[in-house]
Every structure is written in C-alpha cells, then in structure tokens.
Write the structure tokens for this entry.
Amino acid sequence: MSWILEVRRMLDESKRLPAAGGSGTQVVLVVPLYVEAAELWTLLREEPQETPPLSFPATPFEGDDPWPTVARLVSVGLGVEPSRVLRLGELDELGGSDGFRLRACVVAVPSPEDDGSNVEAPAVRLPLSALRHPRLIEERTFEIEGRNVPLAVYHVGRHRLWGPPLDVLLRLLERLEGPESGLEFPAGNLN
C-alpha cells in the first residue's frame, strides 16, 4: 500500500479533537511530508530571528475549514506549487498558553531534490526518525508571557527543536508509530 494512503488512513482513524477550552485565535499549521531513502521526512522553515527558530508555515484563520488556507501557506511558506500537494489529514488541536488553538494539517509534498519548485524556500529537511534518537534532550526555561516555562529541547543534527513544532512532530510520530500502525515505507520516492 502507498505510504500516502497509509498515512491518510491513520490520520482518519482518529477523530480530530478540539483543544481544551475551545476559544481563542485559530491558527493553521502545515506539516509537509515526503519519502526519501525509504523513510518519512518533513520540511521546516529556518527563521533565526524567530522563537523558536525552526517552524512550520502557520497563520491565523477563521471558520471551520483550515484547508483553503493550507494551499496558500504551502506556496508562500515552502515554495511548493499547490497543485503538487496532497491532503493527508489533521492532528488533534493543540491549545496554547496565549489563547491560540493550533490545527496541524498534514500534507504530502514532492521531495525537494525531485522538484525544483521549492529550491528558494528557506527549508530544513528533517527525517522523522531523528526525533526517535535526538543527539540530546535538554530542559530549558523560556520566558513566555512574563512567566518562566520549562520546555524540552531536542538537538537533532545541528538544529534545536522545541515549542509547537516539536509538539506537533511528536504527536504525528506517535500517531504514525502507534500500535495499530503497519506503516512501512517503500524504497524510492512515491511523490
């Protein structure tokens, strides 16, 4: 079975749950996936002046359906032509301390090496397997809204990953590698 169909099935099998305290600004976040060297990879944006410096394309939206916003985010945030993107599903909402509700939409995109459309985007390529075996996990304290908040920081390659991007990736990995998962990745890229 295609990895795309298998990921869709696993995301569809669980109902997307709203964040606790369902009020606040809705934010859609796009998690792009592709297969390379027989494993799943994702693309993150590297923005050194932002906190955290690695992130996924995200923006506030209104209404019940985040998917119309996803195509724009993939195009602007990653430089991938929307016609080359396949919808895979959503993860459960995350609620933030500052009142936002994060809806992570998972999509399949072409491998950056197979498709020149995303060459200009400031993207960091990360295999999901790197989250299973980070070089180091440390707890650091960050000031958020005037409070000191301890957060896990994963050191993956030369990058540090923390905050919402890490939370979303860990939830995705948990969903994809759960006990009911029979996910296997074929050799070669199916995008």
Q: What stands out?
A: Residues 116-121, 181-191 have pLDDT under 50 and may be disordered. The first strand starts at residue 25 and ends at 36. Residues 3-130 form a domain with the Nucleoside Triphosphate Pyrophosphohydrolase fold (CATH 3.90.79.10). The helical segments are 3-12, 67-78, 164-176.
